[in-house]
Amino acid sequence: MKLALIGFGQAGGKVVDEFLAFDERIDGGFIESAIAVNSATADLQGLERVPRENRVLIGEARVKGHGVGADNELGAEIAESDSDEIHRALDSVSIHEIDAFLVVAGMGGGTGSGGAPVLAKHLQRIYTDPVYGLGILPATNEGGIYTLNAARSFQTFVDEVDNLLLFDNDVWRSAGESVQGGYDHINREIVERIGLLFAAGEVTQGDHVAESVVDSSEIINTLTNGITTIGYASETVETNDRGVLSSLDAGSGLFSSLTGGEEEIEGSTTNRMSSLIRKATLGRLTLPCDVSSADRGLVVAAGPPRYLNRKGIEHGRQWLEEETGSMEIRGGDFPTTTRDEVGAIVVLSGVTEVPRIDHLREVAIEAQERTEEVRASAESEFESLMDTGDELEELF
Questions:
Q1: What is the pLDDT, as a whole number, of residue 26?
Q2: Same domain, yes or no, for 228 and 308?
Q3: Residues forming the annotated binding site?
Q4: Cα separation of 89 and 55, whole Å?
Q5: What domain range includes position 69?
């Protein structure tokens, strides 16, 4: 599935940079164009792979390249006022070559959380291709302002995109990691899951063709409305260049004679694949949720062709149907020859039972009530001050 990637803000730009590295590493060919938008000059200069001509500085007249300081209302304002700058960069995108836009942003900062929903709204108005969002939620220990920004951003972002894929930093930060090391690890986790999903189906000449291709229509039909979480599980396997072990595991005559033949090999690969699908679903999702609340789903098996057991994929897909209670669970495989892992990607779309989202909504409601109380108190104090001034005028 061909994407036009747009990273908004510091986190968004870094994730897009990592997407470009991943696409090159797996020879995926799923990125048609990559753009980074920011209000901070230093953040744009720190990118390694986004072409310099595709790095867009906005808000220069107001913040002079120094960022918006976690003020997402200001981030939204400058995204709106400088939308022409962003659209000029989009003019270089071969729209007829892409299947969708993916707007990537950290939802706790200022530029990305404020500007990404604004950009998504403009893209929806101008183009007919789907517009997806990839939002990265801040960890709760990052500070109250970042949680509040995420609460505000979520309310608008989810309404402006066809589907919002969410990644919760709270789940993925490891104790003892440095801040930079933690974010680098998280970015790789994000990109591996979502990159493999969108790379599936992008077959080029000489590639192994999947038995059941996961093309762009399968992904588009899964990512319709609401929010999405993604699970992934993998195992390292022996590949052709590792000698006799790869031959044994692949089902050579010697292995067959030692273990009872092809049926045992078939059973082993079937069990591995169905087990990986369960692990991907019940392990660490990008956004923890009640799996049964998913409205739609997609299962993608990725890895060396010999390990992509069709029966195992089908068993896993049927199990996911039972877990979700949804009949809209699609499935397929993505043969790769550049990795020594076989894995399962599980996409759960339209999920509704999400504790973190419930918490964000509570934060937004509390912030609104607090704002109204502060405003009412300020107005009362101002009126009291004015009354005191009138009384003083009467005395003198």
A1: 87
A2: yes
A3: 10-14, 110-112, 142, 169, 187
A4: 8
A5: 3-199
Q: Give the pLDDT confidence of 5-19 residue by residue, as tens digits.
A: 999 999 999 999 999
Same domain, 157 and 40: yes
More confident residue, 372 or 358: 358
The pLDDT value given to residue 5: 98
- Neighbouring-strand partners of residue 341: 236
147 and 245 assigned to the same domain: no
Q: Are residues 167 and 232 in the same domain?
A: no
Domain assignment of residue 11, yes or no:
yes
User: How far apart, in whole angstroms, are the C-alpha atoms of residue 369 and residue 128?
Assistant: 38
Residues with Cβ within 8 Å of 45's Cβ and at least 6 positions away in sequence, in order, are: none
Inside any domain, residue 10? yes
Task: For 294-303, write each residue's pLDDT tens digit.
Answer: 999 999 999 8
Nearest residue to 249 via CA among 307, 193, 186: 307
Residues 26 and 161 in one domain: yes
Q: Give a yes or no: residue 206 inside a domain.
A: no
Residues 133 and 54 in one domain: yes
Answer yes or no: do 126 and 70 share one domain: yes
How large is the C-alpha radius of gyration of the chain?
A: 24
Q: Which residues sit in the known binding site for GTP?
A: 10-14, 110-112, 142, 169, 187
pLDDT tens per residue, range 98-112: 999 999 999 999 999
User: What is the three-class DSSP state of 332?
Assistant: strand
Any long-range contacts for 306-311 (C-beta under 8 Å, 24+ apart)?
Answer: 306/250, 306/251, 307/237, 307/269, 307/272, 307/273, 307/342, 308/210, 308/211, 308/273, 308/333, 308/334, 308/335, 308/342, 309/266, 309/269, 309/270, 309/272, 309/273, 310/211, 310/212, 311/266, 311/270
**104 located within any domain:** yes
